[in-house]
């Protein structure tokens, strides 16, 4: 009987546990979790804080009982401190700080990521929050309920910052987003970023771009914020959303090798450099299917897949991670914004000669009520015609996610831009057109050659 120990019980850790038990039910699986929320969907935190999900328990992918019914042991509120890979033991502390040791035959590290702390003075002041864990969301929720803040500043205009701008606006706060770069959501090109900025402003979110926050101070009940270019504002609540970094302290202590952006270096079988130790999720680097090299692209979709592979391989399997394309979608007020694959700068770095063509199309037949513009930026290689990536902004009801997923599927199979036209895509006037929007954008790309 294999003793499989997993450090971390979120997307990657629980996926690993479930798969290992499925492949070899005789495996004794134990998951060590630093908090008491196994398998909660932290992707849902903005929707809990907005009030759209009323009960935080609903964020659980599975309940504790459902996980244990699968034969998986849970050690909640236990924090792994060190790994002795020679003796195959992990030392951990419980909620009373008492140390325990557990032996393992196979180990999977799935400790995730933590928010980046930018170089800003005052990040520890009351009223300044980060958002990563269930505990973080309770802290923000309690602050809103107790102090009834009227205004918030969100530092960082990435997907988390924008989801929270939407959420806090729904909670009745006046929100300002301060972003260091010239446009919000820098995962898409500036022309699409401008559409998102306009959507935010239409919902009374003040967008300040090109400003780096430098300092936060307390002044009575308010927080004052200073930034580059004499930027100054005051508010009641601050949320810092400037990205994440892999949480690798336990791995580092065991001399496990780190790679891209300090994430744990893994093979495509999710093996670390040490025998019998695998790693998966936001704490590891990610194989990019197009760049054909490791990157750091922390996403819930990837964490689930990598966890499943680590779990299978830890009990004797030999599966490889097929690689990421960075496919993602986010909802901001009435917009859905999505991307997959490479943008121009990334494509150039990878040795392609990219051409990106932007098309604005209707998301379904214009004569059927509710049609909205869908903005698509399609990127292909000028030399070969190979499809390289796409970015989209459309209405939240405009099937943006389905469309980016069609392109992600085409990218996965390394199709040409022109071949998108041959796909047999579904059509009825309320949902699409006989030539679907991605096909029309492919035609525009080919026509511009
Ligand atoms: C607000 C928000 C919204 C998001 N939205 C999306 C989205 O829409 N789509 C998407 O694809 N991704 C989204 N993500 C990213 C996604 O949530 C992460 O990629 C995913 O949760 C990573 O899973 P993970 O298991 O690797 O790590 P985590 O979810 O970070 O979990 C780490 C686990 O390790 C435990 N842990 C850490 N250290 C120790 C230790 N020393 N000992 C024991 N346990 C430990 C933690 O308690 C936790 O259980 C979002 C993230 C956030 C914060």
What keyword list fits this structure?
single chain; five-stranded parallel sheet; Enolase-like, domain 1; 11 helices; FAD/NAD(P)-binding domain; 3 domains; about 450 residues; alpha/beta; binds flavin-adenine dinucleotide
Describe the overall structure:
This protein has 449 residues and is an alpha/beta fold. It folds into three domains: 164 residues, FAD/NAD(P)-binding domain; 113 residues, FAD/NAD(P)-binding domain; 120 residues, 2-Layer Sandwich (Enolase-like, domain 1), CATH 3.30.390. 25% of the residues lie in helices and 29% in strands. The protein is built from eleven helices and 25 strands. The strands form seven sheets. The chain has a five-stranded parallel sheet with strand order 3-2-1-7-18. Strands 9-16-10-11-12 form a five-stranded parallel sheet, with helices on one face. Strands 21-22-25-24-23 form a five-stranded antiparallel sheet, with helices on both faces. It is globular and about 65 Å long. The chain starts with a strand and ends with a helix. The mean pLDDT is 97. Bound molecules: flavin-adenine dinucleotide.
Write the layout of secondary structure elements.
Layout: E1 3-7, H1 11-23, E2 28-32, H2 45-50, H3 64-69, E3 72-75, E4 79-84, E5 89-93, E6 99-103, E7 106-109, E8 113-115, E9 128-130, H4 134-147, E10 151-155, H5 159-170, E11 174-179, H6 190-202, E12 206-209, E13 213-219, E14 222-227, E15 231-235, E16 237-240, E17 244-246, H7 249-253, E18 277-279, E19 286-288, E20 293-295, H8 300-314, E21 328-332, E22 335-341, H9 344-349, E23 354-362, E24 373-381, E25 387-395, H10 400-412, H11 437-447
Parallel strand pairs: 1-2, 1-7, 2-3, 7-18, 9-16, 10-11, 10-16, 11-12
Antiparallel strand pairs: 4-5, 5-6, 8-17, 13-14, 14-15, 19-20, 21-22, 22-25, 23-24, 24-25
């Amino acid at each position: 009987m294999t003793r499989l120990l997993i450090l971390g019980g979120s997307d990657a850790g629980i996926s690993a546990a479930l798969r290992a038990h499925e492949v070899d039910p005789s495996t004794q699986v134990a998951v060590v979790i630093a908090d008491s929320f196994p398998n909660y969907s932290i992707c849902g935190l903005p929707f809990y804080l907005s009030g759209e999900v009323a009960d935080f328990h609903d964020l659980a992918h599975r309940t504790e009982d459902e996980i244990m019914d699968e034969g998986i042991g849970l050690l909640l509120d236990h924090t792994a401190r060190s790994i002795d890979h020679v003796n195959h033991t992990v030392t951990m502390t419980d909620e009373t700080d008492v140390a325990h040791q557990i032996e393992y035959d196979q180990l999977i590290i799935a400790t995730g990521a933590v928010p980046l702390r930018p170089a800003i003075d005052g990040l520890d002041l009351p009223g300044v929050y980060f958002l990563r864990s269930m505990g973080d969301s309770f802290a923000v929720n309690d602050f809103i309920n107790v102090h009834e803040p009227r205004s918030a500043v969100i530092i960082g205009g990435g997907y988390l910052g924008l989801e929270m701008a939407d959420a806090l606006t729904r909670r009745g706060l006046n929100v300002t987003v301060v972003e260091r770069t010239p446009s919000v959501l820098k995962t898409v090109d500036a022309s699409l970023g401008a559409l998102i900025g306009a959507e935010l402003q239409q919902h009374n979110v003040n967008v300040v771009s090109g400003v780096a926050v430098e300092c936060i101070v307390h002044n009575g009940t308010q927080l004052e914020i200073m930034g580059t270019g004499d930027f100054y504002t005051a508010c009641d609540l601050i949320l810092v959303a400037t990205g994440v970094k892999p949480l690798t302290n336990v791995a580092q202590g065991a001399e496990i090798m780190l790679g891209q952006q300090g994430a744990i270096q893994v093979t495509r079988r999710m093996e670390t450099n040490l025998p019998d130790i695998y790693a998966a999720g936001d704490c590891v680097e990610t194989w990019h299917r197009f760049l054909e090299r490791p990157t750091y692209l922390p996403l819930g979709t990837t964490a689930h897949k990598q966890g499943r592979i680590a779990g299978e391989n830890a009990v004797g399997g030999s599966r490889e991670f097929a690689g990421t394309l960075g496919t993602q979608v986010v909802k901001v007020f009435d917009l859905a914004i999505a991307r997959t694959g490479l943008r121009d700068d990334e494509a150039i770095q990878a040795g392609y000669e990219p051409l990106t063509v932007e098309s604005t199309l209707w998301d379904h037949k214009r004569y059927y009520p509710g049609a909205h513009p869908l903005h698509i930026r399609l990127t292909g290689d000028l030399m070969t015609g190979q499809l390289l990536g796409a970015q989209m902004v459309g209405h939240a009801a405009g099937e943006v996610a389905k469309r980016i997923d069609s392109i992600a599927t085409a990218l996965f199979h390394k199709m040409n831009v022109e071949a998108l036209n041959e796909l047999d895509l579904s059509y009825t006037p309320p949902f699409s057109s006989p030539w679907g929007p991605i096909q029309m954008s492919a035609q525009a790309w080919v026509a511009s050659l």
